[in-house]
Design a protein that fits this description.
- The complex is a heterodimer.
- Chain A is mostly helical.
- Chain A has a domain of 32 residues.
- Chain A is 68% helix and 0% strand.
- Chain A contains three helices and no strands.
- The radius of gyration of chain A is 26 Å and the shape is elongated.
- Chain A starts with 12 loop residues before the first helix and ends with a helix.
- Chain B is built from 18 helices and no strands.
- Classes of the chains: A mainly alpha, B mainly alpha.
Chain lengths: 72, 420
């Protein structure tokens, strides 16, 4: 009688590196697995982002006003 | 040489697709309106400039994708956190959905020229979208879409049929003139619509995600750049051809105030015949169709990246339910909106292009921060000259937006400068 394959196979480090080496050329598996660390935005960056956010809100109001004028 | 060309063919795709995809329904309508309202002059070189801006912006997404192997939305979320990530996603979601509506407007109007009823037009577009995606292979999908996108070049023979004044066209590139009517609110609306026809947030998300899906690495960045430049050249040629094609309407003083996509074809028919007009209308359908596919995918990629759901065109339906559901739901809802009776279609199209320009500077700042992040990019971080060009694009887009805002709030502002 055939044994059922286990749902999750534990791999040791050498097996994992072998699997990654096989997948890497096509799927970039190791590269995608790497975590991208969080970065805090600094003062000037935050100021520009908030300024552009306000600009966007203001311009959205302008576009709505223009749309209202245009349709009336 | 032959092997390098073969490699370029294999690696080409995202750049050509994003550029021809951005030559979408509203874009072609903007270019057509430009030619019909202003003829050959300022706008011919200006449109080429917008494509240079597009190359400056889009090449950064190639480097980001090759260096990080992550989509744009995923990278913003991971690097800057969910607060800023959601801002970027909301901008993209709203912009994409509005643009998708305009793509169905172009399809509806283009097929309307051939007498196809609106409901049948949008239903056919949805079926074609579904068929293109059911290959479940990125490569197959990409080649099919590239083949359809190549039909965007149909505007070039249409332009040739109008026998353009090549001398005037050549001179326009040297002097950037004339600009009939001077600087005015109408000119600014067309300026913004033409910029929005070339540089929009969805392009950033689409090209970066598609480049990741395609599997490009740092070694392929050069080919990714070639792909982007080739796409820009093709798209710019088509855009310029569309302006040239509708210039006879300007020369014959035919009012283009309320033309819709297909009405341009009808207006051109006496000048270029039934064949030329039919090609123009088919070009509008193609433009809407390709963008309909790429924009839907851009939304679905971003959703999958943020929701950490499987997101690839290589996925079968059963494994990518959420990815495909977002894609089809967005498209179906946009298609339904186009069928609302009395919707001011032309106005929606122009305003959507303007909104795309206004949403671009915040998106570019995230791109700018990421592509200069040495920890992420290493040796692929932006050099100074690329940063200077990117900064110039941000300043130009923001400035154009502010001028447009001023023209809406104070309509007589430009009278002092000789405009109207």
């Amino acid at each position: 009688m055939m044994k059922k394959p286990e749902a999750c196979v534990a791999m040791d480090a050498s097996e994992e590196s072998l699997v990654l080496a096989a997948l890497e050329p096509d799927q970039l598996a190791a590269a995608k697995k790497q975590h991208v660390p969080r970065r805090q935005l600094k003062g000037a960056e935050l100021a520009v982002l908030w300024a552009l956010r306000l600009y966007l809100l203001f311009m959205a109001a302008v576009v709505l006003y223009q749309a209202w004028i245009g349709t009336h | 040489m032959l092997s390098r060309l073969r490699l370029l063919w294999l690696l080409a795709g995202p750049g050509v697709l994003v550029m021809l995809g951005e030559n979408d329904g509203p874009s072609m309508l903007s270019y057509a309106a430009t030619g019909a309202k202003f003829g050959i002059g300022f706008f011919l070189p200006f449109i080429v400039l917008t494509f240079i801006m597009a190359v400056v912006v889009q090449e950064m997404t190639v480097r980001l994708a090759a260096a990080t192997h992550r989509g744009h939305a995923e990278l913003i979320f991971e690097r800057f956190g969910p607060f800023w990530g959601w801002f970027a996603m909301i901008d993209l979601g709203i912009g994409n959905f509005l643009t998708l509506i305009t793509e169905f407007i172009a399809i509806r109007a283009g097929l309307g020229f051939f007498g196809v009823p609106p409901a049948a037009s949008v239903a056919a577009a949805l079926v074609l979208l579904y068929t293109a995606l059911m290959t479940h292979r990125y490569w197959t999908w990409e080649r099919i879409t590239l083949a359809i996108a190549a039909c965007n070049l149909v505007f070039i023979p249409v332009a040739l049929m109008t026998h353009p004044d090549w001398h005037a066209a050549g001179r326009a590139f040297g002097v950037w003139k004339p600009l009939p009517g001077g600087l005015s609110k109408d000119v600014l609306l067309i300026v913004l619509a033409d910029i929005g026809a070339t540089v929009t947030p969805w392009m950033l998300f689409f090209q970066q995600s598609a480049t990741v899906d395609k599997g490009l690495t740092r070694r392929d960045i050069g080919f990714g750049h070639l792909d982007t430049v080739a796409g820009a050249l093709l798209a710019a040629a088509t855009a310029v051809a569309t302006v040239l094609a509708t210039t006879p309407l300007f020369l014959h003083h035919m009012s283009a105030e309320n033309y819709q996509a297909a009405e341009f074809a009808q207006a051109l028919q006496p000048l270029i015949g039934r064949l030329g007009a039919s090609l123009f209308a088919l070009g509008m359908v193609e433009a809407g169709m390709v963008a309909c596919v790429t924009i839907s995918i851009s939304s679905a990629y971003a959703f999958g990246e943020v929701a950490e759901r499987p997101h690839s065109l290589n996925l079968p339906l059963s494994e990518g339910k959420a990815f495909y559901a977002v894609l089809f739901l967005c498209a179906a809802l946009a298609a339904a909106i186009v069928l609302i009776p009395g919707l001011p279609l032309v106005y929606v199209v122009l305003l959507v292009n303007v909104i795309a320009v206004l949403a671009m500077p915040p998106a570019l700042i995230f791109l700018f921060l990421l592509v200069n992040d040495k920890e992420l990019m290493g040796s692929s971080a932006s050099p100074r000259w690329a940063n200077a060009l990117a900064a110039a694009v941000v300043v130009l887009l923001t400035g154009a937006g502010i001028l447009f805002g001023c023209s809406v709030i104070a309509p007589n502002l430009f009278a002092a400068w000789g405009g109207n």
